[in-house]
Backbone:
């Protein structure tokens, strides 16, 4: 009765060398997940300073492609005393002081989306309390820039905080 | 005899990494992150198709429905003398009277095989929420062609 170790060394010559596959599979899954996450990463930012209105029959956002975000603030300062403005872009950094600025911006963004083969749409985030005349201005500027689809952003219901 | 077997076992056992504490810690972290994550409500869409600036080749066969929202949040339907007030409570998100009216119009449009059209006139001082209430009703009846008319406001 030889010990297991002894038997192992004796039979070792017959066994073939095997590559350990599990680290490779681990790596492949890791890369797969990395690319999946990266590929679908188009984020439409939600500026907290804009509280969008409620519309219970609104639809979930299907595609985030082609969206040109315009934020309409209720208050011109909007918690940002450095760059006050009623209308801002997605990040809240670009301030549209005049209608021409906004038309320019929309035209450029629309051109970019058209090159990517997408229909440009205005993603209008208007505050629930803002006077409609400001929202109307965005719609008018969108029409002037040749974008005919406007998405009014809303919550399906008010979230309790 | 017993001592001999024990010594043999010691020789054969490979040092093993115990993974149960690792799993414990992983679950703990998972639960911690689940608990600390607040689920943020997702924003949704009410898409509306504006009439394009280019003139349409065909004349719409159906008379567009005219809706007006005034500064107090009152909703009216019709124009001129035929105008009547519908929903007058701006704190109420549902507009049952308007919904009824839109339903009638939509049925008539469907019967005539034409696409329903809505003209919306909003007074400049109306709240955005009130306008979205109206759009909400339209989106409920699957009407996505809206014209915003400017009767007098030029901001």
Residues:
């Amino acid at each position: 009765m030889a010990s297991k170790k002894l038997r192992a060394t004796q039979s070792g010559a017959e066994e073939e060398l095997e590559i350990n596959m599990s680290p490779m599979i681990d790596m492949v899954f890791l890369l797969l997940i990395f690319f999946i996450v990266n590929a679908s990463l188009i984020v439409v930012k939600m500026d907290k300073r804009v509280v969008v209105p409620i519309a219970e029959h609104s639809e979930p956002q299907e595609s985030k492609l082609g969206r040109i975000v315009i934020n309409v603030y209720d208050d011109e300062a909007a918690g940002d005393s450095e760059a006050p403005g009623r209308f801002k872009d997605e990040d809240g950094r670009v301030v549209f002081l005049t209608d021409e600025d906004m038309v320019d911006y929309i035209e450029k963004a629309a051109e970019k989306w058209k090159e990517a083969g997408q229909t440009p749409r205005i993603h209008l985030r208007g505050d629930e309390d803002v006077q409609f005349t400001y929202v109307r201005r965005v719609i008018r500027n969108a029409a002037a820039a040749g974008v005919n689809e406007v998405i009014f952003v809303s919550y399906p219901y008010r979230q309790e905080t | 005899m017993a001592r001999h077997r024990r010594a043999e076992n010691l020789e054969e056992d490979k040092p093993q990494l115990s993974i149960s504490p690792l799993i414990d810690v992983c679950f703990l972290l998972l639960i911690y992150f689940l608990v600390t994550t607040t689920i943020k409500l997702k924003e949704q869409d009410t898409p509306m198709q504006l009439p394009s600036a280019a003139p349409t080749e065909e004349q719409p066969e159906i008379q567009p429905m005219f809706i007006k929202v005034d500064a107090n949040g009152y909703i009216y339907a019709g124009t001129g003398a035929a105008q009547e007030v519908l929903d007058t409570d701006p704190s109420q998100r549902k507009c049952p009277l308007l919904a009824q009216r839109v339903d009638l119009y939509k049925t008539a449009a469907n019967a005539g095989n034409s696409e329903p059209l809505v003209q919306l006139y909003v007074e400049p001082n109306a709240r955005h929420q009130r306008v979205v209430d109206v759009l909400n009703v339209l989106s409920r009846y699957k009407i996505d062609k809206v014209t915003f008319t400017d009767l007098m406001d030029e901001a």
